[in-house]
TrEMBL record, chain B:
InterPro entries noted in UniProt: KdpA
Keyword Membrane belongs to the record: yes
Oligomeric and partner information: The system is composed of three essential subunits: KdpA, KdpB and KdpC.
Signal sequence range: none
TM ranges: 60-80, 130-151, 183-202, 265-286, 293-312, 390-409, 430-451, 489-516, 528-550
Chief location: membrane
Protein origin, superkingdom: Bacteria
Protein name from the UniProt record: Potassium-transporting ATPase potassium-binding subunit
Entry keyword annotation includes DNA repair: no
Family note: Belongs to the KdpA family.
Function in brief: Part of the high-affinity ATP-driven potassium transport (or Kdp) system, which catalyzes the hydrolysis of ATP coupled with the electrogenic transport of potassium into the cytoplasm. This subunit binds the extracellular potassium ions and delivers the ions to the membrane domain of KdpB through an intramembrane tunnel.
UniProt-listed PANTHER family: POTASSIUM-TRANSPORTING ATPASE A CHAIN, POTASSIUM-TRANSPORTING ATPASE POTASSIUM-BINDING SUBUNIT
Subcellular location field: Cell membrane
Amino acid sequence: MNTHTSPGFVENVRMSGEFKKSAIFALSGLILCGGLYTTVATLAGLGVFPEQARGSLIYQDNELRGSTLIAQPFTGDTYFHSRPSSVAHLPTDTGGSNLAPSNPELRAIARQLSQSVSAREGVALADIPVDMISMSGSGVDPHISEQAAALQIPRIARARGLAQENIAALVAQHTATPSFGVLGQSRVNVLTLNLALDNQ
Amino acid sequence: MLEISIILGLAVLLAWPLGHYMTSVYSARPHWGDVVFSPVERVIYKVTGINPDQGMGWKAYAKSLVLFNLVLGVIAFAVLKFQHLLPMNPDNIGPLSWDLALHTAVSFLTNTNQQHYSGQAQLTYLSQGVLIVTLQFLTPAIGLAACVAILRGMVGGLNSETAKEGEARNLGNFYTDVIRGTLRVLIPLALLLALLLTSQGVPSTFSGAAMATPVDAQAGLEVQEIPRGPVSAMVAIKQLGTNGGGFFGPNSSNPYENPTPISNMLQTISLILVPIAIVFMAGRLIGRKSLSTLAFTVMATFSVTMVAASVYSERQENAALAGLSAAGPNMEGKEVRFGTDPSALWATLTTQTSNGSVNSMHDSLNPMAGLVTRAGMLINSTWGGIGSGFINFIVYLWIAIFIAGLMIGRTPELFGRKVETKEIKALGMLIVLPAMVILGLTAITVAFPALTGNSNPGFHAVSQVFYEYTSAFANNGSGFEGLNDDSPWWNVTAVVALILGRYLPILLPLAIAGWMASKRETKAKENAIKLSGATFCVTVIAVILIINFLSFLPSAVIGPIGEGLEIASGNAFVE
């Protein structure tokens, strides 16, 4: 029952009379946005950029070793270590510490991280780059800073019996600079760098 | 600094033509895009029985909006509660509890995307890829439709030429406005962005998780399970539609949602693109360009000031890490590929716009940036949520007109229509509502510490609770995520804040616009307050500041301000 005030115009409606229209409209929306859009967008990405669409995966001898975008845990002395993670670098459980700068628990964790990096690399606390004692937002940050990579070179050179210059050259190959010189930060991809070390 | 300037500059540059395009979309002028879009629209009008040429008065418009939301809400709740019985569930994921299903349904229905469930682990592909993506398109389109209807009302409705004083006015057709916004604005933008994001590495596949053999076999991980999915399709509309609900738990800090500085730039621009375009559209749509100039000046002033404050904040060291490493900025909860500047920029813009997606963890922000993020949500009209943000700005504008009118002894009127007692009563409700809901719920919850589930002690614990309700009421969706928030208490009380924060701030202004539209238009233009003048611009800024300071300054003192002082005094860590 519509109250017509002029042709092609309703001042008020009864909600019960509009229910069917509204329900069909909602279903059309589900088909258009949830069905068609998701399918077209996903298939277009898969068709145009197949590598990236499948997750930038790294294969070696037909074996899947990981993704260039997702960090892996490294504990051995022969490897560069990833940033600390509050989720043990598990891609199924990504997340940050969610601890505030005023939280004593965060300070306790940072102190422990700092002391273990100091002992492992044989450097003073004041020489540790801040990204090595802070937990990333995702818990699977695939990068470390150039300083964090430089810090680890002597240990890896010793453990592998390689010259430091060789490792530094390899680090440079796996370092990305800011896009167009201004966007983002210089960064070293830990997983691809470690794979390259193993393949030397 | 250069990076931030480039991102903000590009956003404004792209929003300008988009605003023009959206003006033509909502004034239904012929456009070359009609060739593509009109046939699809005709099919939808045919199956639904909608007459696109039938205009609606504000009551009809409001009721259609409420009914459509009810229908969508029932569908959403049913799908989430019974997802284990529905198709597209290869991982045999179970149903959500009733309170979590209710919270999730309402959260996405209100364009909030506050998530108390944990990402891909608790939702099926049907819930995530079909239901939620649909709501991420339709809810911004609904907000935009309401905004356009209110704008039409402010100048007397589409039938202002023929209608007499006191007669109902035509504010447009709700269904037409929703479908045009979805089909002609959001879907094309999202398709383009999804493809650009995939080029940077955002997965775009229907395949399940990949199983990798880790490189360091000694590190304790035998197989690395890497979840993938149709990520880029969801991330695109999550960013463009002021939605914020991501595919993975940590949102756009996860490298699969935001892999490179370029994808980060694209997503940051997308946070504010449509909200800025709405500012450019608003004045053109009703032939009052001074409205756009005023809104842009006020919003840009707030936006840039707050960005500067949070960028400064995050360049400072994190007190908990001080002295334990070389001096450096606050990298806790942030990603190396971005660094602190783009993270602080994102945190500020995502809370100004009611988007709520994150590329760093807000719980670990330094106190000043924590203060900026909640201020953005409380003001809620610095660009703001799609449609709803500009509606909030109109509310501030009406209040400013009223106050300015009283101060100089003129009848307060906007575009020739008087703001009178009835309107002021409704505006008064809108002023006290946020304080009542947010402070009320925070007070109750903090009084019962067993309810909160905090991850942090002290001042920050109060901040976590306040942030959660502010985020719900502002329909933002970001969080101080350390909160253990999947409990019946959190779910139900957040639903109250979500509903009050979404529908009253849309429906009351719609009613006000409807009432004002029917009034006689004063022709004496020389007496009107000029929107374009610097004096009135400062008045609007002052009104926004005063309302929010009065309501929320005390709560900031026992939150981030207290936390900042505690850190500065050296009392945070007794060692």
